[in-house]
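Self-study notes.
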Amino acid sequence: MALAMPQTPQRPLPGGFVNTPAPTHALSQVGALTSSIFNRGIQASMAQSSGQQPGQGGGYGQQQAQQAPQQQQQQGQMQQSQQAAAVSSTVGQGLGLVERGARTISTALEQEAKYPALDNYISQGFSSDYDMPSSAAWAPFQKIKMYDIPDKIFEQYNQAQVSTMMGLFAELNHAWISIDNALYLWDYTEPNPELIGFEEQPNSITAVKLVTPRAGVFVPQISRLLVVATTSDIFLLGVACQSTPTGSKQVSLYQTRMQVSVRGISVQCITGSTTSGRIFFAGRGDDDVYELTYQQEEKWFQNRCAKVNRTSPGYTSIVPALPFMSKAPHEFVNQLVVDDTRNILFTLSSRSTIRVFSLRDPNNLTLCVTRSLSSIMNDLGHKVGPTSLFRQGTSIVSLSPISATESSRLNLIGTTSTGCRIFFSAVSSSYYGGDATSPPTSMQVHHVKFPPKDPSFSQQQQQQQAGSITAFQAPPSGDDANTLTETRLTQRFAPGYFLCFVQKNPQAASDLLFITAPDSGRIGNIQDTTLQAKFPEFGLWLNLDSRAEDVGEVTPAFAATSNPNGFGNELGVQFDKPATEIAVLTNTGVHTFRRRRMVDIFASAIRYGGGDEGLDGEIKNFVRVYGRGETIATAIAVACGQGSDVTADARVAKVTDPEVLERARKAFIEHGGKPVLNENALSDQGAPAVDNVQPSPRHQGLALYISRLLRSVWQAPVVLQGMSPQGGMQIVPAVPLSKLQDVQQDLTRLQEFLNTNKTFIEGLAGPEALGRVSTKQEEVALQGEHRALNSLLSLVSDIIEGISFVLVLFDERVSEIFMSISPESRQQVQQMTYETLFSTLQGKELAKELVRAIVNRNIASGSNVDTVTDALRRRCGSFCSADDCVIFKAQEQLKRASDQNVSSETSRNLLNESLRLLQKVAGSLTLEHLRDAIQQYISLNFYAGAIQLALSVAQESDRGNKALSWLNDGSPQNDTRAQAYESRVRYYDLIHQIIDSVDQAPPQDPMTGKRKQEAYDVINNSKDEVFQINLYDWYLSQGWSDRLLDIDSPFIITYLQRKSVQDVAHADLLWRYYAHYEDFLETAKVQLQLAKSAFELDLEQRIEYLSRARANASTKSLGLANVGRPRQSRQELLREVSDLLDVANIQGDLLQRMKADSRLTAEKRPQVLKQLNAQILGLDDLYNGYVDQAGYYDLALVVFQTADHRNPTDIRATWQNLIESLHQETESEGQLQPYEAVSERVRILGARLSLSESTFPIPILLPLLSRYSYEFQRTTSPPTWISTLFLDLSVPHETLISILETMFYNDEVPFKGRNRRFIVPDLLNVVHSWMAESAQTGGRMFGSEENTVAVSELLRDLLEQGAGAGLGEDVVEEIRMLRGRVDGGLRRS
């Protein structure tokens, strides 16, 4: 059929065949509504008969509809899995070298923080293990120097009459001696020190103690108090200490006028709390504890200084020395010690009774625990069994508290006269869930450390096992364990340095010193699982050849961390904090000892290890004891000059011996181990094989060394905000600059070492190292090693530059620079740590912002930008790149332009030059920097330049044009290209602000119009399609749709075409745009698509679009836009629009009918009306779904007409049904005569159907109406109403006469025989009308002679059959007269 009519496009038909209407069936577009719109029961029964629920279908189309969401879900899951794989791959591969190195350092520091707490390696029970060094190279301590007692002291000593005492203020590098009533202090480090004396009182001095004062009582210069007890009074002296340029400390004493009587107490021990400033003392007169109270001013009933008995209240605290109350004391306090971390005061009595007092109440002492010597010995008997070391007469000679920061449970060490250390654990009522300051309720023996074996035996053992560390077991009982009997004085310093002074010969005035230190390397070695039972310690015997009087710690107290875990990690802080120094005062002078770090021991071991032959053995010994990673970390530290030793002139100096450094270098290179590929982890196909490489111990040691150098810096903030002395804001470095410089120097030496030796280091040697591998596994392992080592090397380089940046920052007025950046950046800078600065993009961006602030400040002050940037690039090049220098140069041009007249040519040239420079480095401009530049351009009315700069930066941010491809693909979700679009939008938003500024520019300015035109020229001429799309979106969001109509750009059409698919407003704007430029054909196409679209448009709007489209398609466009367009395409479009408009009109009529149709149920009505008042349906849907079911026969005829349906049987039946339904409807209503309703409906349809031969067939319709009139309206209707109806429709007379004549001669029911008379009036009416029309036109009668003859013959036949046809006389007479007139006309013609 299509081939038969190639010039006419096929019209849509209501049925499946061209020539027949379709039967009623379910339609895909109408769905369940098309089955039946009036009878729900039929639909349900049909569904049940097919085995389906009502409303369900079982066809292929529905299966596809059900499968589509499942396929979409499967595709979404597949995409998610692919994205997850991509993310996992990014995690494994996306880390840069610096980020990977930073993660390694953080991991190393985390491992360092897991160093066991004291509780973890001192278990319940006892131990006696000591590692006694076989050579001086392995000694844990090293004697630095002995400072003689000045001759001036001996001169005073020779004048002593009653008593003398000596002591140390080691933290001040001072010693003291009391001679009778005089006290003298001197700096023992000076060769000829000046004596500082206190001689203002007459009584003998019994005790001296240096304590920390209570805050706010004295002036800030008084940092300490010297408590001096005499037989009569106790005095408080203020102590001020200042460091001199030479490094020594200058001490001054000040009278405070604070003293209180202590007669009868015989004070012999004093202590003080560092945190609270409370002072306690006790004497030989009793076992009470007194507190010395002091305040700034006197108050009612309270002096500036007083003593209070905190343990025996009542009158004894007021008058303890009355003669009648005196009695022989049986017990007194020998020692007082305070643990500030737990708020506890420990006392040791002359009977070795330990008492524990709580200091939580600031005005009282609360006794918590009392442990007598007998109860302690009873616990020891159960724990260790019988031993001669706890025989009768054994006493506790000293107490040493263990702080809560060092151990959460162990709180005290008591040392016996036999040298046994008893570790006590305290238990409080709130031990589980309480804080460290909760007062204890009991104190139990936890562990006992026995003395070592006899030194002579150890020397024999050392000779047998020379060159190694030997651990030997001292039995807990027997004479061999009496090596520390009689212990006279002991002292313990954190994290476990124990000094025990033993008087072997009571007749000799000399002590033997046994000093121990924890073996931190073994304790921290996680591979050693026997540490809890061994409590590893180094032990060292020293002969002082003099009697010890006091011992003190010269350096600050050791604390690697502020909590028990990691507290004792000496290895972790060996490059971060000074080595511990201890001073021992004897009757001959002050001996100073230095704790040797692991790096110092290693340097000595490889120096004195017997040359190259013994070097290998020493290193293997280190590896065996401490692990290969620790050994390598120590070796590279020595190779980088971290080792130190005591020189011949008693100085601590760095080890610079080339031979030692070379041996350390060889140890690092040759004993670094190899990387290992973990083949068991290769099953994860998502990660590359190189990610499963475990780097070598060399990498571990290098990371360990770097982490220890950075330990105090890594997590520290870069800046701290404080207050200046004047009350203003002040920014200071959180880490001292001197410390940063030290770290930088150490890292620089490391960097130089690695760069110098990289050809010998596996993993840094470069590609040539791959030639030495033999298997694929070794190649992958070497690649992993190379990546790991290079990540650390890159990190070191960045850290060195980062520290240079911080030093540069604090060389400037950092507070002003800090205030010049944005508030958000200020907050980020305050939160920024050195780790962030060194290893993250955020840190680098913040640093660059600070660099810009530095440069801007210098530019503002008139400095030359080239000079400033050159200095910055030399010191920290990565923070001030070549692009940054160009940016700073552009800023200088902007500054100069702002100083000129805005309208001057000079200013414009400077602005253009700044724009040229900024466009040159557009890829390096940050959003913040771009925003600042644009603000300056706007302030200088340089709108066009601001827009050009923003466009350049946007294009540089997406050089691959991913944003445009994302838009062209329909902006899919979860697409990585969307990030490129969002990035560009941030820059386009700045252009929107520029446009607002342009539009708001003052119109009175004569340059405004020109600047505005320049800006819009840049906008409209931009080739950035993404920008144009964003701009159009912004215009519409602002309600400026008219601006789009004025834009002559190909981008606007593409934009509107893309958007018109998604939004009706954009589609509406598209046809308006075409109409604006008189492209009516494209206008009609868009309107047609709108009418056919799935947008939420009602039917009236769609009909309006079609009407407009038909008008536009019928209008011929002018201009070049229509050149070359074929005329046929216009005709096809017009035909399509017209056909669709016809269908839409039918649907409109149907909609109105359905609104008034009472047969629709309340449930069905909204569904039907919604379906009809939406998209235009096909003729199949309208006919089968609605028209046929509803019995709208007139609309059915219109459907036949539109579909070109020509089946006469269907058409006759439809007309018959229409007439019958109208007759019944009119009769039931009773308002009109039925024939009148039928006549009116036929007249309307005749006009609408244009008297179509197919759908308005007069040969069929005229007999139908005649029969209807005869059967139903014979007595009520005019005899000629049918002919009059057709004549009104302008049906040709000859057609009507021909049909009526045929009806008359056919002699068929009901017009048979005499009933034929009912046809004659219509025949006569048509003849009369034809004659009248001929007369009016002035032409021939009936149009031609042939017609006249035919009419004459018809009249003759009627006369001849008059009686037979049932004609009356009046009708016959009328026919005769009419024939006469017709014949007369023939004669005249």
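Second protein, same conventions, sequence then structure:
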Amino acid sequence: MDPHTSSVGEGGGTRTTDPCSLPASPESISICPENSSSPLNTPNQRQRQLLPPQQLSLPQSQTKSHDHQQQEKGKSQEPPPQENETSAESELPDMVQLSLADCKEFLNDIFNGTPTNNGATIHPEDHPEQSEECSLVSLRMWIMNKDNDGGPQTANRRTQEAKEHLVRKATVAYGITEILRHSHRLEHFSLDPQRFQLDNFAVLLSSVGAADADSQSCRWNNIQGVVMISPSINLRFAKPLLVSENFFDEVEEENEGSQQLPADPYDDLDGLDGLGTHLQVEIDVGGGFILGEDGSMNNHQKKRGDGFWCHTLGVILHELFANEPPFSCNVNLYDSIQEDIPTKGREDDERCTKRPNSEMAGRSKLEYVPLLKLGLPSSISMFVKSLIDCTKADEEGSPIGCQDKGGFPRPYDAYPSLGAASNDLHLLLQYPNRFLFDNTVVATGDTISVGSGLLHLRKHRLYGRHSQMSLLADTYCRVSLTGQSEGVFVSGYSGSGKTKLVESVMEHVALAGGYVIDQKCDQMQQERPLSVIISALNKLPLLILQTNTPQEVELIVEKFTAVFGHNISTLARVLPNITLLIPQLNEGRAHYSENELNFHNLHFLLLLFMRVVSSKERPVMLFLDDLHWSCTAALDLILAILSDRQGSNCLFFVGSYRDDEVRSDHAICGFTDKLSSLNVPAAIVHLDGMTIDELNRLVSDALCLLPNCCRRLSQILYQKTKGNPHFAVSVMRSLVERGLIRYSVRVRRRVWDESKIRDDEGISNNVLHLLSTKMAGMPEIQSALKIASCFGARFSADVVKFLSCVPEYTDIERHLDDVISEGFMELSRADYKFVHDSVQESAYNLIPAEEKNQFHYRLGISIYNNTPAECITNDLIFLITDQINHGNPSLIPPMQLINVAGLNYAAAKISMSSSNFTAARFYLGAAINLLPDGHWSAHYDLSKNLFFLIGNAALAAGHMTEASDAVNVLICNGRCLEDKLGAYHILVLLLHAQNKPKQAYSICLDVLSQLGEEIPASVYLEESISRVCNIQTALANKSNDYLLNMKVMESKTKLSLMQFYSQIHFISYFLKPDSGMMHFYACRLIELCLEYGISKYSARAFNHFAMILGGNTVKDTDGSYRMGKLALQFLSKFNAIDQLPIVYLQYYGYIAVHREPFQACAEMLRQAHEIGLSIGDIPTAVLNGIHYIQKALIAGQKLSVLKEDAAYQGRVIDRHSLLKMSQSYLKNFQETVNALMTKEGSASLGEETDFSHTDFGDAALFHVVFRSFWKGHFSRCNFYAEKYSKLVTEINQVKRVIILFYHGIVSAHLLKHSNSSAKKQVARNALEHVKMSVKESKWNHANKVHLLEAELYSWERKTEKAKHAYNAAIESSRASKFIHEQGLACELAGLHYKGIAKYDTARDFFNQARDCYEEWGSQIKVDYIADQIDMLGGLPHQDCTG
């Protein structure tokens, strides 16, 4: 930085400008009497209005003889000294030799643009931006004019005028302080005592203010700057309007004698009150005064350290505020600065005589007149006194080391530097209500204690957390810019300010357009861990309504409908506030069947919800406070949302937790590692205690005293609290309440005894103990505190209404009002809330540990016994059940056990309906533990319902073993088949998911037999085909409308038959795909529909039949497509959400792929996967996910996307570890994708295996052929394609077409090297089969026909036909968006043209192929094409014809 330029930061803004390098500031006026070469001296001069000369007052000691005046005037005609010339005379004009008349003329000349005897001028034209004229008034005259203002006024007006006058003087004081800060750093700056008198300063006023200086209407805002006359240092206020015009009017309206400090007018806006922005100043230093190279003081100043300068400032400011010197006796205040200073002409002045140091050392103690006694505020009195105390030497025994730069010891309260004094002055101006004006407190006597009202904390101010705030803000900005979710975890001990830190950022996020939601995890609600996330997300619909236009809301609703479809009703059950956006959902909610509430999977439902709501334009900030009370289930849900890569989630997650509450086995530990492994950025912010300076600022704000006055108290508090913010505030409140901090009427401020506070034993080292001690002294509110603490950190006001109905708690509302008045709680909207979690813990600790279980139980059972059954709402069920469950089961009387078990069952059903399976399992487990011996006999219905529901909940939550155990208990103890059917259904799902199809098949057969069905052991295929044809004919004679409007099946037995026939048909596909049993089961399902009516299971029935029609035996693709479309209509007719995953799997996985684009089928399978997860049908959801990857792979989806999709499916399977069959399927896809992406990818299955002795199934062989083909292993591909052709697959014809296509391409390629009739036949057969598929879907197969034809034409050397066929294949692939097959067509075309020596054309096609493969993401293909291009490098660039 240039030595002439400096700046001051937060405490106010200061700029000093190098006059030698920069033009004069438009907001500065320079007075340069020492150097006529000032850059302000320009030929253009404009007259400026100046106050009459009589308003300038200089002391008589500065006058000289008239002759001497004339001599000095004559010097002004001499040429100015050269730039490099220096002399004491030229640099330091002796102002003390000027007469009063000379001084008047000097100032008049300067400000009227007339050269003075020193050549200094002021030029208004250098400041064209200045909108009003400015004039200079001697500081002493300005003080006298202001102090003499008077006239008849009201008391309020006099108070207002006094405050205005005080602000003006504080403003001038700030200007003088800033000038001294810069002047004492100037080289050759003389310590002449005359420089430090009021007469060496002037006030720069606006012309209006100067003209009306004697008028009462003169406002405070006419102050434009402050000027030091010699040396020339000019300060201008960059923003002179420091206080709003109506600021004092607002203060005037405050009631006189109020016992509370008037609130800062802008206390809640960026910590500012009526002074607006930070006061900034700009300083111009006159020419000839240059800072030393190191910015240090000159040799004379080095003997005078910071203490001297602070003392000098204190003397000046005392006279500024009091209009009289600080000492009452006739002693020259400036004698102390005479020592070692070369002066001129002082021998003639009697007052320049040096006095003994002993006299100087003792006089301030004897003769100082405090400003407080002169009626000034205590803040100004203490401020000036602390400055003057800076020269006190040894009389007060300053501790060792407390010395300024000049070696002078200073008291603790003395200011360390002018910078510190300037910062405090700036605080006075920023917050006058808090720091400048005396706080009025009505009292009698010397002191008064008004409890914690003596503390005035800033609710929205953070102390010492700026870096952490920046990290949070930066993270949000990244989320909004990139659209990638991120997480931040804020850790720290209780009371370290975690919540307040995050809340400070939440306000900015909301202003930036983000959705901000927060929720507090609660120790008392750990049995419902997911409820905290559900409650938080349920706030989003309301935010959407509040922050968006009606048009934007309509678009969001359309997006909800498009994404959720039928599943929107399930979302409304989980997040009821969705009905605020879609009111029509309220109309149909009563008609939802109980089946729709089974198997809800919260993870994916909320993940879909976040995809709709969040975006880069509208990120969601989710803050979960006290995350240490959460569990794995809640964190898993957060993990699922943060790691979602399928949608457009844009989530900024923040979680806070206490370090001391998180053990090594807690779910939080390692959570950030999980996020990192999923490429989700996450950061941990740790909050320690405040530093002592930060704590001092908090204490300063709370006590309305300047920071310098509180430093020693802050040191004591720091020792006791280690800087913990909440603990520090609690300790201060305790000190106030016990009178150790009190208000003194005599000195009009807060006072304390440091020794008593230091030795006080009432301050614990633990905030909980401190709060508990305080609460223990308030027996009248202890009962309310205990009761409130049992409900957690926050609870609804409705709870109080329930409690009020209980005779024991009728006065609870009144007592809670007392708790609020004591500051322990607050009423926020419709909720009661503890002000801090430590307060809730302290209140909870009032209950003895051995009595807590009983207290909870008594609270819950009292509400239950005194509330009529018809009044027990869902919320009340949870409240009662949670309280009882916190107690010990042994406390429950035997006669109440079943009632309490019933309450838990009711709570579980409610949790299941909102997809909170974790909570449901907790309540069901509690209910089962309460069941007495012999409950299957005495309480059969309750037992049956409990075990069936826990089987459902465990299955949906992925706890397969728990689900299996529960349903087996029900099967063993069920009284009839009807009671066991639900358990059998769950068991079949579990066995199939565990890759145990034979056992699942056997159970289905057994159940169907018990339901009266006669099922043959086997069926000949021909017989089953005949049965299929008969039903096919019957259906062909019935219209779709007829089928859709058949009677509805009502028999529970028949519905069970439909359910288990559907299951056994699906299992038989995996177990007995070649037998006639699949046809038998499909036909029986249609027969049941035609005979007994339709149901939600009819969708599956018609899909099963459609799969048979489109299979390899019947081959009726038209009929198959019609039946499949009917299945979707049945699904819609019955709104059968629970059947959607399996129906979509059948239709889009096996039926629609013959007619509809692969990409469209893949997308619908992905949606089915998501819906399956959302309704808890995990096995079917996973199968949909695998089929989605298969169709996307065939359609040429980018391999990198498929890799992420496969990894995501793997994580879903890992959460449900018993899905063994799905794991083996998924592994094939992962290996295939890896093999295609890089050479280092997984080796193809079988490449290191003896295939001749390996029995491959349909799926395994498909992947072997697929990998071999794309890796260029044509011989291997040919071998396994032949093996695949020998498999008899009944229904999966799409894979057969793909394999035939690959086999044909390979055969045609091999024909070019060996003319084999067998291979020729394979290629032609492949072409014929694929042509037949084109009749079903031109989109999916036309490009394959063109490419097969091109390869055959190339082998036959039909060059022109090959050319057109290759071009057609390329164009058709591009149109169908098959990027991989477009690349394949370009590759084969390049090989063709290379073979006929058209190298340039070959090179062009290879380049196109490389681009396609790069887009696909197959590095192995890119490398292969690059090799082909390199091989063409040495060949001719012109196509050859030979």
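Instructor comment on the second fold: Residues 155-183 form the longest helix (29 residues).
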